[in-house]
Amino acid sequence: MNVPFFDYPRLFLDNKSEYMTIIETVLSKGAYILQEELETFEENFAKFMNVPYGYGVSDATSGLHLILMALGIGPGDEVIFPSHTFVATAGAVNAVGAIPVPADIGPDGLVCAQSVEQKISPATRVIMPVHLNGRVCDMDAIVAIANNHDLLIVEDAAQAYGARYKGRYAGSFGVAASFSFYPAKSLGCFGDGGAIVTSDKHLAEKLNCMRDHGRSNGSDVAMWGVNSRLDNLQAAILSYRLNDFDQDIAKRRAIAEKYQKKLRHISNIVLPPAPNSDKVRFDTFQNYEIQSNERDELQKYLRAQNIGALVQWGGKAVHQFTALNFDASLPETEEYFRKCLMLPMNVFLSNEDTDYVCETVKKFYSNA
Ligand SMILES: *Cc1c(COP(=O)(O)O)cnc(C)c1O
Questions:
Q1: How many Å lie between the centroid of ligand 1 and the Cα of residue 93?
Q2: 43 within 8 A of 257, measured Cβ to Cβ
Q3: Residue 60 CA, ligand 1 centroid: distance in Å
Q4: What is the signed CA dihedral for 218, 220, 223, 227, rounded to 10 degrees?
Q5: For the purposes of burial, counting CB atoms within 10 Å of the CB of 246, is it exposed (0-12), middle (13-18) or buried (19 or more)?
């Protein structure tokens, strides 16, 4: 048996002939940039999550950067984000010259609302929750804090397309949100890609213009912008993948259910909340992140049995990268990063694959 963490070739090979047809059709028309396939995808992407405006961008990081630019966030401003995230979240804040302020996490690995409140200063302008692992943050608490302190919410929803909280979709709580189509993301394309959404018409017009050099109506330049466009070809591929998206999420949730059922008896590991354990949430399981006191040994053992298990972000929370000069102590995050490990979680896993992962984890603990 061999269960890689993510089988990259299969993203293409499992539906190769369909993709080849799409590629041939789009390229034969010469429809590379800002064409019909992009518009169609943007429409369907936003409609799926009940938000009126959506725009393809080059990647989720660039999407966050654009949103902050459009909101006028800059030098002197502070943006609070959870340290358990990809460095991209903080990188987008840094890119506009603002200060990323890391907050601590709760038991589910997502941002802790109390910690966010403690990090608020007179310079705070934005809270940037990250809906990690396909699970929406405690948005009742975050929205209340934002309202009380007159702050904006910009959501890093890179991992959470389709995830819901009290019936609302990740990305529909804040002033705007950014999504990623990096190949290993639950809606992945064949390279870099992303989308931003908003319900604010004025902001939507600005974002649409700014992602294309600040141009409007063809050639007039209305404002400063950047080049952050989603390739028309990637959009066509994403539209095809969107057709099966609900099924893909159902499959991820079924795998999570199986992990839960087979691993919950092992007292040495903590599992993420089960798919049906939470009445207010619909989690999409971008990742299946467990915690184990024997994390390093377990990871090594799994690797020796040909199972790819990874520690997210290469093993460090953002504030732990010394080159970035954060001066923060976040005890819950630091404790979490001594224990967290992601088991394989993707639509390519067969029943035999997940059984093998479970049996191997069990074997590790019965030998220990
Ligand atoms: C993947 C990811 C990003 C960055 O997405 P790109 O499209 O690669 O820029 C940002 N934040 C989180 C939480 C992510 O998982």
A1: 14
A2: no
A3: 5
A4: 40
A5: exposed
> 180 CA distance to ligand 1 centroid (A)?
6
Tokens of 267: 């007292």
pLDDT at 218 over 80: no
Pairwise CA distance, residues 248 & 254, whole Å = 10
Give per-residue pLDDT as tens, 129-186: 999 999 999 999 999 999 999 999 999 999 999 999 999 999 999 999 999 999 999 9
Whether pLDDT at 219 is above 90: no
d(CA 194, CA 187): 10
CA–centroid distance, residue 18 to ligand 1 (Å): 27
Q: Which atom of ligand 1 sits closest to the CA of residue 63?
A: 9
> What is the amino acid identity at position 176?
A
Q: Which atom of ligand 1 lies at the shortest distance from residue 286's CA?
A: 15
pLDDT at 367: 75
Residue 126, classed as helix, strand or coil, is strand
Probe target for ligand 1 pocket from 130, 178, 179, 182, with the most ligand atoms within 8 Å of CB: 182
260 C-beta neighbours (distance < 10 Å), count: 17
